[in-house]
Design a protein that fits this description.
Layout (H helix, E strand, L loop, with lengths): L1 H12 L11 H22 L7 H9 L1 H15 L12 E13 L18 E7 L6 E10 L2 E4 H18 L8
Parallel strand pairs: 1-2
Antiparallel strand pairs: 1-3, 3-4
Helix pairs in contact: 1-2, 1-5, 2-4, 2-5, 3-4, 4-5
Length: 176
């Protein structure tokens, strides 16, 4: 789970010179993290230091971030959720949010897109006073019950929640 989290963090914080519209790498990293995050419960339920495996499921159900992770994981795995989602909100869509920052004085007219974004993807173009060339970033945004969430923000909270669970049971594992 932590390797998947670190990969997602790198993609979410890596400011590069290009963000390729249509590239699914960030979506794949998001999918991988949330599947590993949710299935971490299976390891915990078999850990002898966990007195009652049902407490793991209860913790997930009482954590909004981990409930979202469960819903995302099950949506990816089963091509949607047929039962009631744990978070109370069904996954509606996953999109990319691209950002392009152009230094002041540059001509934004030279921006060319070789691909069109997918339906629901966004592109924000801004200008700043920094030197150098354009800088592009991309992040994954998913929508549950009409509310949009930044994948990395939910992933950060999931890791904090698992840390809290482990610490409350005297289990020392570095999950950051």
């Amino acid at each position: 789970m932590i390797r998947a989290y670190e990969n997602l963090r790198i993609l979410a914080t890596n400011i590069g010179k290009t963000a390729v519209i249509g590239d699914r790498t960030a979506v794949d990293a998001t999918t991988s993290f949330f599947m590993n995050c949710y299935h971490f419960k299976d390891w915990l339920k078999k850990d002898s230091r966990i007195q009652c495996p049902k407490n793991v499921e209860d913790f997930i159900s009482n954590s909004y971030a981990l409930s979202i992770a469960a819903d995302l994981c099950n949506s990816f795995k089963h091509a949607g959720i047929k039962s009631d989602p744990r978070s109370g909100k069904p996954l509606e869509k996953i999109n990319m949010a691209y950002s392009l920052d152009i230094p002041l004085g540059s001509d934004p007219a030279y921006i060319q897109f070789s691909r069109n974004p997918s339906d629901g993807d966004t592109i924000t173009i801004s200008q700043s006073i920094r030197a150098g060339g354009p800088v592009a970033t991309a992040k994954v945004v998913f929508t549950l019950g009409g509310i949009s969430y930044d994948a990395i923000e939910v992933a950060d909270e999931c890791v904090r929640q698992w840390n809290s669970f482990l610490e409350s049971r005297g289990i020392s594992v570095a999950l950051d």
